[in-house]
Every structure is written in C-alpha cells, then in structure tokens.
Amino acid sequence: MVGNLCHVFGMGRPSMFEFAGGEPAFLALATAHHERCLQDPVLNHPFSHPGHPQHVERLASYWAEVFGGPAQYSERAEGHSGILRIHAGTDAEEELGNRFVDCFVKAADDAGLPRDPEFRSGLRAYIECAVQEVLTYSQRGSAVPTDMSVPRWTWNGLEPRSPAT
C-alpha cells in the first residue's frame, strides 16, 4: 500500500527494505526463519550446528542489504562470496533448497512483514533465485569467486551485479 501511494503521489517507491520496516523487520525475519529451520526435520541438522555466534544478526544484515538497506554486512563480512563459501561443497540437494524457501515464506508471516502481494512475490522470487545460486556452488569442488558483491533485489528483481569493493 505504501509503495502504491508513493508511486501515485510521485514520491518514488521505497526500497523493499524500507517497505518491509527496515532493520527490525529483517531481524524478525531472520529470527523466524532460523526457528522454522530448526523445527524442520531435514533442515534441523545443518541449522543446529554451532556456526557464527551472531548468525541470525548477520543473516538479517545480509538480507537487509540485499533488499536495499545499508551495506553493513559487506562492511563487516566477506560480502556475497563469503556467504557462498559457507555453503560451497556441501552437496546440498534440491529438497533442502525447497524446504529453505518454504521456511522463508512462512517466516515472513511469522515476522509480520507486509502482506502486499507484490512485496511477497518479490521476497519469494529473491529467495528462490538465491537458493538456486547456493545449490550451484554446493557441488563438491565448486570454486567461489572472491569478488562477488552482495546482490541487490528491487521491486523489479535482481539488479546487475558489480564486483565487491
């Protein structure tokens, strides 16, 4: 609704990050998503192992940046290449990816993100695209380029990628 009103009044459309509710919305999404993954019988195993002590906060920061928020993840971590390296060579299967998408979509409800159909469609399209990329690099022996910047997802989909700075 906000995006439509801004467009009608010529104010420009807010980023998906702003439309979602900013950093608190993405922290709620990452928290809800992590909980759903822990409850899933297939995703539980990879999500229950200790990883980074601030995994949820880092994931929230990453997703916030993807959807037009501040570049905090890129400033503190290894950008998109680092995310892909975490998942590289794990031999993840399509079913794992489908379950991850399902948890993400349901977590958007749990987190109270806007139910605007265009916004939700954009969220789903992003996570499906992201999961396919992760699955590509999950094959044994996959090499992840070192200069990949965090992707930017807008109301129009994926923006062209440029090297990380």
Strand and helix layout:
Elements: H1 2-8, H2 16-20, H3 23-39, H4 44-48, H5 55-66, H6 72-76, H7 79-87, H8 94-110, H9 117-137, E1 153-154, E2 157-158
Antiparallel strand pairs: 1-2
Helix pairs in contact: 3-5, 3-8, 8-9
Folded structure, characterized:
With 165 residues, the protein is mainly α. The protein has a single domain, classed as Globin-like (Orthogonal Bundle). The chain is 59% helix and 2% strand. It contains 9 helices and 2 strands. A hairpin with a 2-residue loop joins strand 1 and strand 2. Helix 3 packs across helix 5 (55-66), helix 3 packs across helix 8 (94-110) and helix 8 packs antiparallel against helix 9.
| Largest sheet composition | 2 strands, antiparallel
CATH topology: Globin-like
Helix content: 55-70%
CATH superfamily: Globins
Give helix and strand order, one letter per element, not per position. HHHHHHHHHEE
CATH class: Mainly Alpha
CATH architecture: Orthogonal Bundle
Mass-distribution shape: globular
Cα-based radius of gyration, to the nearest Å: 16 Å
What value does the average pLDDT take?
88
Count of beta strands: 2
The total number of structural domains is: 1
Task: Pick out its properties.
165 residues; mainly alpha; Globin-like; two-stranded antiparallel sheet; 9 helices; 2 strands; 59% helix; globular; disordered N terminus
How do you describe this structure in short?
With 165 residues, the protein is mainly α. Helices cover 59% and strands 2% of the residues.
